[in-house]
Design a protein that fits this description.
31% of the residues lie in helices and 31% in strands. The chain has 305 residues and is of the alpha/beta class. A 5-stranded mixed β-sheet has the order 3-2-1-6-10, with helices on both faces. It has a 5-stranded mixed β-sheet with strand order 13-12-11-14-15, with helices on both faces. A 3-stranded antiparallel β-sheet has the order 7-9-8. It comes from Virgibacillus halodenitrificans (Bacillus halodenitrificans). Pfam families: PilM_2 (PF11104). This is Pilus assembly protein PilM.
Amino acid sequence: MGLLTNDRVNIVITNYLLRYSYYRMPAADGLVSYGEIELPEGTLREGQVEKKSVLVEMINKLIHEKKWRKKKLFFSLPDDTVVIRNIEIPASLARNEAKDYVRTQLGNKIYLPFSNPVIALDYLDVTPESEEYQQVLLYAYPQDKLTAFEEVFDKAGFKVIGADLTSLSVYRYYYQTREEPSRHVLLAHWNRDSLGISIFQEHKAIFTRYITIDPLLFSEQEANITVMLDDYILEINRIIDFYRYSITKGNEQIEQIVLSGDFPLLEEAQRKIADQATIPIDRFAKDELPVKYVDVMGLGLKSDG
């Protein structure tokens, strides 16, 4: 954990809980505290803040207990509405001009399922067919959802300095804590109410798929749960094949599966996946903290810049 150099709070919020970690400067002091608190039902729904006053009150109480008022904060956004696109932009554009160019193309050459997005670009190290264009990855997220979370944290008493996607936080932890991270990784971030499947190629997120899990799953009979679990694993296998045969045209394949999240049947899911595929699986079973905290640990590894 010596990689962490941030004196700040890190928070991941799902539809049903808030997970946190806090590291103090210098990094040698290590982890100060971590944990999670359940959110009252209906506080968040489908990644949207539904009861702002309730969420503010709960965070305010946590800040008071931990003496975190005005502390720097990084938080993770739900991945349910993120869009990832591989696009081309004119190679002549400077990096500080690229975002403005992309915004002029929204609704023209670039279409998103929501308006007023916050966007980020990641340049790909790919030789373009034409020297006139550069390939980049476009990450887009609804601005209104981001703003709602920022307002909650600000009102509660934090100093918000940045946000991240949960899938990127998990991958960051994997990448920075493994001696030889793979180049072609499928991440299945599996929580009680959702399954987020992301593909990372050369440590860049190039694909994402978000699946909502029926909250009644765990009240079903064991046979029904097994069938539903098999359906989710079938989707993971389908995406593995999609990457190999459609995205890379048979030239590459997934080399590593990474499992994370607070899904109660994560260990069973690992066994079932291993029965169907020969790809190595990393479930962080030998790490210092339970696997459910990997997301907030990875968020803590994000630099302030």
